Prior knowledge:
This protein is of the alpha/beta class. The protein has helices at about 30-40, 45-50, 55-65, 80, 85-90, 100-105, 145, 150-160, 175, 205-220, and strands at about 1-5, 75-80, 110, 115-120, 125, 165-170, 185-195, 200, 240, 250-255. The strands form two sheets. Strands 1, 3, 4, 6, 7, 8, 9 and 10 form an eight-stranded mixed β-sheet that branches. It has a two-stranded antiparallel sheet with strand order 2-5. A hairpin with a 3-residue loop joins strand 3 (about 110) and strand 4 (about 115-120).
Amino acid sequence: MFALLSPAKKLDLSPTPDELAVSQPALLDQTELLLRTVRKLKIGDLTRLMGISEKLALLNVERFLRLAPPFDRQNARPAALLFAGDTYQGLEARSFDRADWAFAADHLRILSGLYGLLRPSDLIKEYRLEMGTKLKTRRGASLYEFWGSRLTQHLKQELETHESRAVVNLASQEYISAVQPRQLGARFVDCVFRELRNGQAKVISFLAKRARGMMAHYIVKRRIDRVEGLESFDRAGYRFDPQASSADRLVFTRPEGAEPST
């Protein structure tokens, strides 16, 4: 079983713990092809393409120019530690011990516009290139066309070593759209996290992002490798809602007032 996460814009540049066993991204050959295109982009191109300020565009032009393998502990960081948005606050990867990292390497994958698919321990450099970016390459007019079926086929190949052939979607729609579920040859399950507000259940974006990370943390810490094990998730007041769920859509609802104070 794999759980899929989105990356994050917010980054944490703290040092990597010396004891952490790191790895290299599996699709670096594709990343290098993509870099041939993005390195040609100027500041004005990035502001239009990504809808960002000139200051951010300049930063990312410089990042793309510096972004070249090989990656090591001095010039790169593990993906699950570099990303620091809501999902990664929920993931709490810095709390993982060596056995947790090993399990995460076998059961978590992070979708990325630049790197394709990442293990949590894969070393990467800072970048900004969202999956929904309409970047023209020789393969088409967007990153979805650049990656095509490659991410799906890579996941499918990795799933062949798993006893439980299932993929749990903890990613955003933007990122999961880079995967073709029907071609995986595996059970595909969405997880939905809702908040009760005035008697109505609603998905609140930043809370749902954090909950996805908490679910990934739960999978790692509890060594869950079957979809059925997800139903016992109970962190931060969430509970499995069987009436709102189906076989391929697991809904977790949190009562009003149950959100922990921060």
